[in-house]
Amino acid sequence: MTIHAYKKSKKQLTIFFVTLIGITLLSAKLTNFNFLHGIQTLPKAIGWMFSNLYISAQSLEKFPSVLEKLVETIFLSITSTTTAAVVAMFLALMGSQTTKVNNFFASLSRIIASVYRNIPIVAWALILLLSFGQNALTGYFALFLATFGFLTRAFIETIDETSSSSVEALRASGATYFQMVAKAVMPECSPQMISWILYMIETNIRSSTLVGILTGTGIGFMFDLYYKSMNYNVVSLITISIVVVVIGIELISNYVRRVIL
Amino acid sequence: MALLHVKDVSKHYEKGKNVLSDINMEIFEGEFVSIIGPSGAGKSTFLRCINRMINISEGDIHFDGIDVSSLNKKSLRKHRTKIGMIFQHYNLVSRLTVIENVLHGRFGHKSTLQGVLGMFTEDEKMEAFHLLEKLGMSEHAYKRCDQLSGGQKQRVGIARALIQSPKLLLCDEPIASLDPNASKVIMDHLQSISKEMNITCIVNLHQVDVARKYSDRVIGLNSGRVVYDGESKALSSKAIHAIYGSEAGSLIME
Ligand SMILES: Nc1ncnc2c1ncn2[C@@H]1O[C@H](COP(=O)(O)OP(=O)(O)OP(=O)(O)O)[C@@H](O)[C@H]1O
Ligand SMILES: [Mg+2]
């Protein structure tokens, strides 16, 4: 009986891997991706990177203006994340099974969150570009819309996982809706929610580079500018600054998480 | 007159599948009643119908002279303040302190704003400490609840229910997650609450011997029907087998 089950699961595993390899080969064929060619050009690509992507003394002169744009980008992603978190909080309270007001609003908020979450941030940037033009507001809204969809979903799960039992107890004792939210949901969920917000700030700093290329703002715009004028030394300065900032933010948020959780 | 009067109550979640069928009973002030029955018999559902955490499908429930089904939002809130509830998993706000959790039991008596701002009177705070002392928990008053043992958490749960000044305590498997020592402490407290404060207790239990030892009366549920309702002393082993739908001698007991 158990041996049979074991054999069966082994067989399933084999089928799974064979299928996976099959799909990989098929998609390579469909997209004209040649593995051999890809591997052959790898050394050349790495060689190019080493000879072009380094920071020269000359490019360091640009550091103050890079820093300025970097700060702009950090603030953009913090503002968009925190404002999105406020909206997400309301939608999550409506959408969670624990704190929903009624089924209609619960489904509505889940649908809204899901639609906004599943439209890629690049698509948002391009759509908004049409209505707002090339300015910081476009970048802000693109980050805001994608973030609030994601955070709503994350908050809904946090609420249902961590506070459904204490909410049940308060409801049974005759507490009102806002008493339950303020005294059970908030204390139980806020550490987890803050953790999600920090995660989204990190993510948004990374995405705002990409969004900036499209919308012509922040660090992304600068990246695009030097990239197109083939000043690769400044491009690597920018890239490394972004990496340093993202790692820095990650370290800060790890520290904050340790303290609050 | 009975404190709780349950008449022809049925409950189904999906049409045609009754979880409770034709439940009738009267429960009197100060009584200690245990409800026993196999998993899925409908014990938790029945308890939650009494404070209308779940709406019944048919029949009616009168508590303290009031028809529970007819209550509007505001009077439902008032109804619930008269009924304390104790849970298997304690259902405390684990990141808050013991004393804060106990005071949560007062929300039903307060306006939304007073509750949200955490405005409690001196009397309420005194009462909270008094209850904690009575339950042997005063030294833990300022500890966070996630630092307590299961038995201690359940005592916080009891204090939170008692500060409501309830007439009835609904206990849904209060000792199912506790070791025998902690279980005895909790059951002793519930018994003294019922005897000394004259608060009616309805307790869902999985341990027949505990039910027999502590309660005045045992109600046996099976598949949503009352199959036994009588004094705990009169609970024969034949009745127990009928409740659990098993052959004689096939149950784990002492
Ligand atoms: N929200 C719900 N929706 C649909 N069915 C439910 C729901 N809650 C409970 N049930 C069903 O109702 C029946 C009774 O459940 P209930 O939890 O009242 O049993 P119980 O006697 O408390 O069991 P246990 O001893 O395991 O706690 C079960 O068959 C369960 O599947
Ligand atoms: Mg149950």
Tag the structure with descriptive keywords:
heterodimer; A: 261 residues; mainly alpha; MetI-like fold; 10 helices; globular; B: alpha/beta; 2 domains; binds magnesium ion
Model description:
The complex is a heterodimer of chains A (261) and B (254). Helix content of chain A is 87%, strand content 0%. Chain A contains 10 helices and no strands. In chain A, helix 4 packs parallel to helix 7 and helix 5 packs antiparallel against helix 7 (136-172). The two termini of chain A are 45 Å apart. Chain B has 2 domains: 1-82 and 167-254, P-loop containing nucleotide triphosphate hydrolases (Rossmann fold, 3-Layer(aba) Sandwich), CATH 3.40.50; 87-165, no CATH class. Chain B is 34% helix and 24% strand. Chain B has 9 helices and 10 strands. In chain B, the strands form 2 sheets. Chain B has a 6-stranded mixed beta sheet, with helices on both faces. Chain B has a 4-stranded antiparallel beta sheet with strand order 2-1-4-5, with helices on one face. In chain B, helix 6 (150-162) runs parallel beside helix 7 (180-196). Chain B is globular. The chains are: A mainly alpha (261), B alpha/beta (254). The complex binds adenosine-5'-triphosphate (ATP) and magnesium ion. The site of magnesium ion has 3 residues of chain B, from helix 1. Adenosine-5'-triphosphate (ATP) is lined by residues 13, 19, 37, 39-45 of chain B.
